[in-house]
Amino acid sequence: MASKALPLPDHEDQPPRRVKEILPISFSLFGAFGQLKELAQYWDLIYTMSQHRVRVRYKQSMLGIAWAILQPLSLMLIYTVIFSYVAKIPSNGQPYAIFVFVGLLPWTYFSTTLNAATNSLVSHINLVTKVYFPREILPLTYVLAAFFDFLIALLIMACMMVYYHTSVTANLLWTIPIIVLMTLFVTAMALISSAAQVRFRDVGVGIPLLLQIWMYATPVVYPLSTIAKLSKPLRVIYMLNPMVGIIENFRRAVLQGIGPDMTSLVLSCAVSLILLPGAYIYFKHAEASAVDII
Amino acid sequence: MIDLKLDHVSKRYLIRHEADANNKVHPLLQKLSNLWNRPEEFWALRDVSFEVQRGEALGIIGRNGAGKSTILKLLANITRPTAGKITINGRLSALIEVGSGFHQDLTGRENIYLSGSILGMNRSEITRKLDSIIDFAGIRQFIDTPVKRYSSGMYVRLGFSIAAHLEPDILLLDEVLAVGDGAFQLKCMNRIKELEHAGTTIVFISHDLRAIERVCDRVILLKSGEIVACGPPSEVIKVYDPPRKVDGKHQRELLIFNNLNPNAGLKFEVERIEVVERDGSIKHELRTGDYVRFRISWRSDEILEQGGVELGIRTLDGVPLIQYSTRPVSTTDVRFYQGRNSIELVFDEFPLASGDYQLSAGLTIPMVTWLHRVDSFGLLHVKENDILRSGFPLESSCSVLAVPHQWIVAAEEQEGVSPNVNVELFS
To answer: What ipTM goes with this model?
Structure first.
């Protein structure tokens, strides 16, 4: 074994050291946000971990990255048969296949992340109990990995749009803020579920069920217009689910080429923007005691 | 300059009791009642305060459960104190159990990036040190192979190589020195010494009193979460471990060596080596010249008519001293049964001088192939025994082999020559 001299730290000639204080767990609103700055210093770790998450997922599978496309594609086929041919659900005058595919893409992004991220703290127990890094990195890497899959699937969506001669308008640009909004909401949910899973393993069991119900409470396989029959207050309650505004408006921008439905979009925005800081504070609070419980 | 400061730090753990089988209460009710009932308290640390100067090496010793690991976890910011305040001045790294950040499906190279960034290096830093890390681990040939195909030795070497390339201001050391083979432990020790000379502040937590004595300037003794002594290593160690068994870490512990990297996926796997007394009980210590039986236990998932077992003992530098196999070295037939198997290698007089050695064991199909092999069972410490009754028992540093022997002085040779010389000298 070659034993070359290893680099040694130079303790004399250095910029001033960062002083760190470790204090008992206390609940503070702004304390949690101070840690955002620390999170930024860990960008390398977030990047490396997410990259590897994507790699590992496809490493020993034959189809590799094609799985990112196959899942929404096969769901599309199933739903097209069931909801279009059997149940005859309206699809805003679009071919049902592309209608449901465009709804399924953001939904898959959301459900994949939530399913995977819920276990992120618990499954990395050997890391969490041995090395310090901001723990939110673990759920965040699942968000990023799923986001990568989402981007791949967007390419397929583009192909389908060409195939179905979907007209592209400037309103397509609305997808960008919608995707950002969705990522914020997904992140918030991932933070909450992963932290809650540490204390209550029921969460991990419940999430797949919750996601199934949630999908039908979201206009994925049907258009938002079908719930026009509901009374106004019921509709507002329905729209408090941020995924409603996200998926409906994503589809509007992509397929119909029209501007967003402002009521649902604003509601989605409001709920997500209130939820995210709350989720972060909850996560940081739970993080501090996670090791003692996990 | 103070690099590290604990200010009246306490840590409390809450213990919830799981519903046990004898309990009459329904487990669900038990869980519900646990939600109201106050769980039992356990204070791992009580009001602990100390400071570490820049460049100082502080050792922390104490029995199991004294609070050593809790201190380590607190310093590494893995868990938070219940009361008090910890101030850390600079970049702190823990030389953690190597390889815990590895992902099985990723290659060595990918794992260097992953593990490196978990330990706090950034990408450019890792890229810069990549070659050095690979060379230090000595695995250049396998760097693009998934680590799940690595031998346990390669795994450990890569893990340590990454950790050794950290350049922290403050270095935390756990029982790292207790794992891995002797060569690895030496490397570990050398790197620690290097960092110490470069002025790195070190906190070293260990059972190994000799290692503590070698590395540390000052030692703290913990008992039930409180500091009971603090001072120069030799004095504190005397308090901890009264002189009659200063050398005695090994004295009370049973000599059982477990495979540290068990892998249930293997069909054949060496599980442990026990050092056994004549009456079959496990020894507390092994001395030069002792009667000893090395009991090797292994697991086999299938029946094998013609198996083979090997036991190896090497010096810390890896020189093989003993490499004995049932075949071809001996002519013993071994049949592997499904489940647990064991075999004993007997020495009437153990031939090695006092010192530390590495134990290894393996399963083979004799002359054909290895089935499983463990290179690193940890250190076998042989205690001195004055088999020659000279008052100078042999140590491995001067002679590794200590077999009975004698000198025979040629009594009547060249009579007259030397006395003459002597006479002349004295006259």
So the answer is: 0.76
